[in-house]
Amino acid sequence: MPLINKYYFILFLFLPGTNIYAQSLQLTAAEKIWINEHPTIRLAYDNNFPPFEWKNDDGIFTGLSVDLMDLLEKKLNIQFKQIHFKTWSELLTAFKAGHIDILPSIAENKKRQQYILFTKPHNISPGLVISSKKFSSTSELKHKKIGVVNDYFWDDLVSRHDDQFNIIRFESTKDAIEFVVTGQIDAMISDLASITYIMNKKSISNFNVVPIPFDKKKSLKLSIGIRKDWPILKNILQKALDSISNEEQNIINNKWFTLKEISIEKKSFWQDEEFIFKLKIFSMLIFSLFFTIIIWNRSLNSKVKQRTLQLEKARGQLIHAEKMESIGRLSAGVAHEVKNPLAIIQMCIDYLKGEDNDETIISILDDMDDAVLRADTVIKGLLDFSRENKLQFVQGNINEILEQSIKLVRHELKQNSIQEINNFDSNLPLLDMDKNRLKQVFINLLVNAVHAIKSSARINDRAITITTSFIKLNKEIKELFILDYSQLSNHEEYQKTLIIGQNMLLITIVDNGCGLKKDEEKKIFEPFYTTKPVGEGTGLGLSVSKTIIGLHHGIIRMNNRTDNEQGVEIKIFFVLQD
Q1: Which domains are seen in the chain, by residue range?
Q2: What Å distances lie between residue 3 and 15, 347, 365, CA to CA?
Q3: Cα(514)–Cα(531) distance, rounded to whole angstroms?
Q4: What is the C-alpha separation between 422 and 406, in angstroms, rounded?
Q5: Which of 121, 198, 294, 390 suits a disulfide with 221, CB 3.0-4.6 Å?
Q6: How many Å apart are CA 99 and CA 95, to the nearest integer?
Q7: What is the pLDDT of residue 157?
Q8: Phi, psi dihedrals of residue 474, rounded to the nearest 5°
Q9: How many CB atoms lie within 10 A of CB 410?
């Protein structure tokens, strides 16, 4: 099946009605008499089943099922009387007891066939398994916590395998999704329409689709359920459903399924009008930001010339810090705007990968998957750069953290014939640190060093040297700290805490790669600045690393080596508390 036809297939699943051509509504004499004898028919809607039926904030039922029943009510000239219940389980119990005549949207199964008559399905939505973790198949979910809505179609389906799963039941799909994205359960099962609708309304994006084997895929087929002793009503309602025209179908469909998240045209994302509009807004903001900075800098030039060199450096640092804060806020906004559409695209790709595809389609889906992964990596970098996360400080040995970080990149070192030289001081005191964040910094620095060595002309004697040492704070290092922290509101108090001679920890990473150009030393920690070729770096790794070091009350410096050798020398200073 061609790719574009698969998209149409997904869209068709959401369409109410099962007939391509509407039939005229012609009731028999017996059916007309029955309607006259039963002018009021009792029905009940589910309180928590969007987009099909639910009670809104005003206490009024709304959704696709409600609009469908309103249309049937007009066609048949009958009155549906709403009966209210708190939960779906209570509603089913009341139906069995004869307090309800019809249920507008219910899926057929063997258990329900004992007491319900069903029309043909008026809506079909594929089943979906979602998780906050990355599972390669549903087989990996055995003995995991799986969420379903109590007494829904999926509850009956999963309950047949209750020996394989730890089933957690919820009162609504929304509750189950929230438990998934917060990691309180491992996965949940529902239908594509419900998950997509709630995800858009709640701006939820941090989850993955668990692939379902093709032969085990199920769909939620919603029909109108009728009490067992009224077969004539089933025939009447089926005729009314068959009489719904394409225009009437589209009115209901377009109201509840915007379908923005599932495109039927293979357009590039940069051709999308919404993307172009956001890009224009983003460009205007960037232009305004840089224009403001240029004007501001010019107004300060005359004053800066009259100040001392130290004041000039401090003010430049202040401007830089405020620029970083603005870019951080802007980055976070853009990242959040893009992350939700990316999550939906990824969900659709994961779903289509579970189909029976030919090699061409598989190749196309893999390319799409790689593109989404690339974009998601950039977005995560933007969010890391802009997010103010609390660190989890514990005491630890910096040598152990370095060794663990080196272990993770050791394969890269061997692959590129790079020698690892470690000169660790074994008598270093413990340091208050967030171990995972510092690992992130060291891995990023080591990977950058590997890339620098690979891009150099050096073939032999490739090496990275890592040294840890115990030093004393001197005047030169103190000035570096004061310069880095001059943007703090309490920088004067902070300056007083820096005492010449106090204990410090120094980490030095030296490579013999291609080195830095003269103008790169000043820009290297700025966000979005990278020395790597286009497509190989986001320019955020070193910015995030500097932020993490700063949150540990340390500073980082990167310069060309001063020993007449080619390469880069990185120094990281931490003040030790007595």
Answers
A1: 14-123+220-256 (3.40.190.10), 125-219 (3.40.190.10), 269-386 (no CATH), 394-575 (3.30.565.10)
A2: 20, 16, 9
A3: 11
A4: 10
A5: 121
A6: 6
A7: 86
A8: -115, 180
A9: 13
Burial class (CB in 10 A: 0-12, 13-18, 19+), 132: middle
CA distances (Å), origin 259, targets 22, 140, 282, 416, 457 = 24, 31, 25, 48, 53
The enclosing H or E element of 251 equals: helix 246-256
Q: What is the mean pLDDT of the chain?
A: 79
User: What tens digit of pLDDT does each residue of 36-94 get?
Assistant: 999 899 999 999 899 999 998 888 999 999 999 999 999 998 999 999 998 999 999 99
Per the CB < 8 A criterion, the answer to whether 62 and 186 are in contact is no
Q: Which residues of 520-542 are buried (b: 16+ CB within 10 A; e: fewer)?
A: eeeebbbbeebbeeeeebbbbbb
Q: Burial-class residue 15 by CB neighbours within 10 Å (0-12, 13-18, 19+).
A: middle
Distance CA(82)–CA(165), nearest Å, equals: 37
Q: What is the pLDDT of residue 40?
A: 92
* Separation in Å, CA 282 to CA 278, 285, 529: 6, 5, 18
DSSP for 98-147, please give it.
TS-SEEEEEE--HHHHTTEEE-S-SEEEEEEEEESS--SSGGGGTTSEEE
Buried-state track 199-216, b at ≥16 Cβ within 10 A, e below 16: bbeeebbebbbbbbeeee
Q: What is the pLDDT of residue 388?
A: 53
Tokens representing 453 are: 């060595």
Cα angle: 417, vertex 422, 423; to 5 degrees? 150
Whole-number Å distance between alpha carbons of 448 and 232? 75
- Interatomic CA distance for residues 406 and 69, integer angstroms: 65
Query: pLDDT at residue 256 above 60?
Result: yes
Tokens representing 11 are: 């869209």
Q: How far apart are CA 232 and CA 34, in angstroms?
A: 8
The predicted-structure confidence for 202-225, as pLDDT tens digits, reads as follows: 877 777 888 888 778 888 999 999
CA distance 141 to 143: 6
> 238-266 b/e with 16+ CB inside 10 Å = b?
bbbbbbbeeebbeebbeebbeeebbeeee
- The candidate with the shortest Cα–Cα distance to 543, out of 523, 572, 563, 564, is 523
- Token code pair at residue 433: 């640190």
Distance, in Å, from the CA atom of 332 to the CA atom of 297, rounded to the nearest integer, reads 25
